[in-house]
């Protein structure tokens, strides 16, 4: 116990002997390193959320495309069912007409058959006397035979008429059978088409449900991203004054910065709210994007000290230069870094190369101006 107390006393004495400035500087450095670690963690979390958003958006796009294809298939099947129903309706109407025609033929046959039976019965009852009367009334046997032939001709005619009626009825029944077979085939085809429609609709319902789930996931990931982004931004803002105490920076005396991307003056995205190229929603853009080919030089906008040079989440490879007086500049998405933290740089010095690292859709320099850790429009500062 006594030994421990002695060690604590020695440590305290050593600390008291150290220059106050050095102790404060070391504390500030440790604090800055801790904040930087938190920034890195927030940046990592933000990047992971962004990756999930991109993956979910891509999956959603595929699912929506599949849903649209299923919709088209369902439309085709429904059109097919509509056409089949029309054919079945026509067949029903044709069958009904055939049935009415058959009934009419049957009625005519029955009526004619009854009349013919009556004639035959009358002839049968009076055949003997009739033939005798016919014989006696005939002037010759030839005339008698002619009368008999006439009676037979009438009988044959009636029989032929009935046979023709029966034949017509049979033809109509055969035609009706053909239509009924056609209707049966169409009903079977309709059953197959309806089953296909139900299967497609089930798949479409599943795709729509999956789309809703993906949209919910995307919104959830966006909240995570936004939370991490805000945390990262707040931490960066808190880091600016802390780092300024740890470095022997050149005091910024105002004046214009030099253009950080020499020979390339096109601004592909200005400062302020814009349609985010990745999220496709309105987001605040904290700097200006200067379009330039990959590998082009990036210049320090003014004299200062490098606060940071390394990977910085969505900024990719990034350099932050402290110009003193609470003013700093940020250079994002670099393909290559040519300076390191703590290094002093001069205005116009090449500090990095243009690239498309981090959250980027193409080669460009993302340039920010920060006043006391808060971003501001860089354009009034650039010559």
UniProtKB/TrEMBL annotation:
Keywords attached to this entry: Coiled coil, Signal
Signal sequence range: 1-22
A GO MF label: metalloendopeptidase activity
Annotated M23ase beta-sheet core domain residues: 283-378
Source species, domain of life: Bacteria
Stretches assigned to the Peptidoglycan hydrolase PcsB coiled-coil domain: 102-174
Coiled coil (UniProt feature): 32-122, 193-238
InterPro entries the record matches: Cell_wall_metabolism_enzyme (IPR050570), Dup_hybrid_motif (IPR011055), M23ase_b-sheet_dom (IPR016047), PcsB_CC (IPR057309)
One matching Pfam family: CC_PcsB
UniProt protein name: Peptidoglycan DD-metalloendopeptidase family protein
């Amino acid at each position: 116990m006594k030994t421990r107390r002695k060690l604590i006393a020695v440590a305290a004495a050593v600390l008291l002997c150290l220059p106050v400035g050095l102790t404060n500087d070391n504390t500030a450095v440790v604090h800055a390193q801790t904040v930087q670690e938190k920034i890195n963690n927030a940046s990592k979390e933000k990047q992971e959320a962004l990756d999930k958003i991109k993956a979910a958006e891509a999956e959603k796009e595929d699912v929506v495309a599949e849903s649209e294809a299923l919709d088209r298939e369902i439309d085709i099947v429904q059109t097919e069912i509509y056409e089949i129903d029309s054919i079945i309706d026509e067949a029903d109407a044709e069958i009904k007409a055939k049935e009415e025609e058959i009934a009419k033929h049957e009625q005519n046959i029955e009526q004619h058959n009854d009349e013919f039976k009556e004639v035959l019965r009358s002839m049968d009852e009076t055949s003997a006397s009739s033939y005798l009367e016919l014989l006696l009334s005939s002037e010759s046997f030839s005339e008698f035979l002619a009368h008999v032939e006439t009676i037979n001709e009438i009988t044959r005619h009636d029989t032929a008429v009935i046979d023709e009626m029966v034949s017509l009825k049979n033809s109509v029944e055969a035609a009706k059978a053909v239509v009924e077979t056609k209707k049966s085939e169409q009903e079977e085809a309709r059953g197959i088409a309806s089953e296909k429609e139900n299967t497609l609709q089930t798949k479409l319902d599943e795709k729509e449900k999956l789309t809703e789930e993906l949209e919910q996931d995307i919104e959830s990931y966006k909240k995570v991203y936004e939370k991490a982004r805000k945390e990262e931004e707040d931490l960066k803002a808190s880091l600016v004054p802390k780092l300024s105490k740890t470095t022997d920076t050149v005091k910024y005396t105002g004046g214009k910065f030099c253009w950080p991307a020499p020979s390339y003056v096109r601004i592909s995205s200005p400062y302020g709210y814009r349609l985010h190229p990745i999220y496709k929603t309105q987001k605040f853009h904290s700097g200006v994007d200067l379009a330039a080919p990959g590998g082009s030089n990036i210049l320090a906008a003014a004299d200062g000290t490098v606060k940071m040079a390394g990977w910085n989440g969505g900024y990719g490879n990034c350099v932050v230069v402290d110009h003193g007086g609470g003013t700093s500049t940020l250079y994002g998405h670099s393909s290559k870094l040519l300076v390191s933290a703590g290094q002093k740089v001069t205005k116009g010095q090449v500090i990095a190369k243009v690239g498309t690292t981090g959250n980027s859709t193409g080669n460009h320099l993302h340039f920010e101006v920060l006043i006391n850790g808060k971003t501001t429009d860089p354009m009034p500062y650039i010559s």
